[in-house]
């Protein structure tokens, strides 16, 4: 395991995924009786958001533990896609409130969830930008002219 291989995009994705998971435990909606957390307010959306959020820490762990860039690069694509899906799901949940007869407003956990989903998208995308290992330099390339054709 080498944290030197982890770039800023992977750190952002890993942190954003963890924050999105934590946000599900916070209040998302103000209701008449008591606030509703993400886990209480949703039937299936909460599980979907939790699964999408796991792509960030997975990307961070794979980048730190794999020698080859192939798997972390593939998971970067998955992470960016999961971030886009999580952003869309949270935006829909902000517009279409569940249990509309009980909900009186949107609480801070929903906004934190939206910010974390956007950061998950940005982190996955940012990790795709450069596949070079930080601090690594390419060896110089020697260019030799080819000999003229004989004949």
Give structural attributes:
151 residues; elongated; three-stranded antiparallel beta sheet; mainly alpha; 58% helix
Furnish the topology, listing elements before pairings.
Blueprint (H helix, E strand, L loop, with lengths): L7 H16 L3 E5 L4 E2 H4 L3 H9 L1 H11 L4 H26 L7 E4 L1 H22 L22
Antiparallel strand pairs: 1-2, 1-3
Helix pairs in contact: 1-3, 1-4, 1-6, 3-5, 4-5, 5-6
Strand order of the largest sheet: 2-1-3
Radius of gyration: 22 Å
What profile does the largest beta sheet have? 3 strands, antiparallel
Measured as a percent range, the helix fraction is: 55-70%
**Helix count from the secondary structure assignment:** 6
Distance between the termini: 57 Å
Query: What is the count of β-strands?
Result: 3
Strand content: 5-15%
- Assign an overall shape: elongated
Mean pLDDT: 87
- The helix/strand order is HEEHHHHEH
From the helix content, strand content and strand pairing, which structural class follows?
A: mainly alpha
What are the low-pLDDT stretches, counting only 5+ consecutive residues below 50?
none
Report what the structure shows.
The protein is built from 6 helices and 3 strands, in the order αββααααβα. It has a 3-stranded antiparallel beta sheet. The chain has helices spanning 8-23, 38-41, 45-53, 55-65, 70-95, 108-129; strands at residues 27-31, 36-37, 103-106. The mean pLDDT is 87. 58% of the residues lie in helices and 7% in strands. It is mainly alpha-helical and 151 residues long.
